[in-house]
Amino acid sequence: MKHLFLCLALVVAPQWVLAPHLVMVQSSLAQTMMTQATPAAEPNAPPSPAPAAPAAEPAAPVADPLAVLRKLYFGTEAEQRFLAYSVRLTKLQDAAEAATRRVGAAVAGLDFQYHVNATTSEPGYEKTVLIAVRRNDGKQARVRVSLKNHRNVELVYDLVFENGRWVIDDVRSIREPRWILSRLYITGAREK
């Protein structure tokens, strides 16, 4: 079943991670296909032998670089709040947050929702999210996210594998307004 679903997902969208509601549709389609492909038993036929035990599933990968972005775009508020950032990006964000406390207002990098490139998110924007892996060498990954939130948004996420898991190391907007999150944090930390 899992193998059929994986094949369907690859045929439908080989490089895109689809919204969860589309995955459910694909899963239902796979179940329908499996049900239709199972031949009916003849009424007077002897009972068939018990099916063989399923083969052991291959071990799941230690981590999935897309899991971080799935949490960000499709996760609960709690999952979104506790995203994993690299040590480097965490230090930069901490410095920007310290500046925010010092000046009493949100500084650069903390004054908008970077994942939608706006100060607010449009209801239902999640349905427009498309995620594509551009590069993944097992230590670093580059992922492109496209979505519509008040306007077309295109972001590139750089992820790194740190301490046994994938974490966000930087984010860039490749459409106007253009920015790089780490540079915004550096600018924000310098505000007085």
Protein traits:
disordered N terminus; 6 helices; Nuclear Transport Factor 2, Chain: A; 6-stranded antiparallel β-sheet; alpha+beta; 21% strand; 192 residues
What is the succession of H and E elements?
HEHHHHEEEEEH
Number of helices: 6
Task: Characterize the main sheet.
Answer: 6 strands, antiparallel
Percent of residues in helices comes to 25-40%
Q: Supply Rg.
A: 22 Å
Mean pLDDT: 75
User: Which fold name corresponds to the CATH topology of the domain at 65-190?
Assistant: Nuclear Transport Factor 2, Chain: A
Q: Strand pairing plus helix content: what structural class?
A: alpha+beta
Strand content: 15-25%
Shape: globular
How far do the termini sit from each other? 58 Å
CATH class of the domain at 65-190: Alpha Beta
Produce a short descriptive summary.
Helices cover 37% and strands 21% of the residues. The chain has 192 residues and is an alpha+beta fold.
Task: Give your account of this protein's structure.
The chain has six helices and six strands, in the order αβααααβββββα. A hairpin with a 3-residue loop joins strand 3 (140-148) and strand 4. The longest helix is centred in the first third of the chain and has 18 residues, at 20-37. The protein is an alpha+beta fold and 192 residues long. The protein is globular and about 40 Å long. 20% of the residues are buried. Helix 1 (2-12) packs across helix 2 and helix 5 (87-103) packs parallel to helix 6 (181-190). The protein has helices at residues 2-12, 20-37, 65-74, 77-81, 87-103, 181-190; strands at residues 16-17, 130-136, 140-148, 152-162, 165-173, 179-180. The protein has a domain at 65-190: Nuclear Transport Factor 2, Chain: A. Strands 1-2-3-4-5-6 form a six-stranded antiparallel beta sheet. The model is unreliable at 1-43 and 45-62 (pLDDT under 50). The protein starts with a helix and ends with a helix.
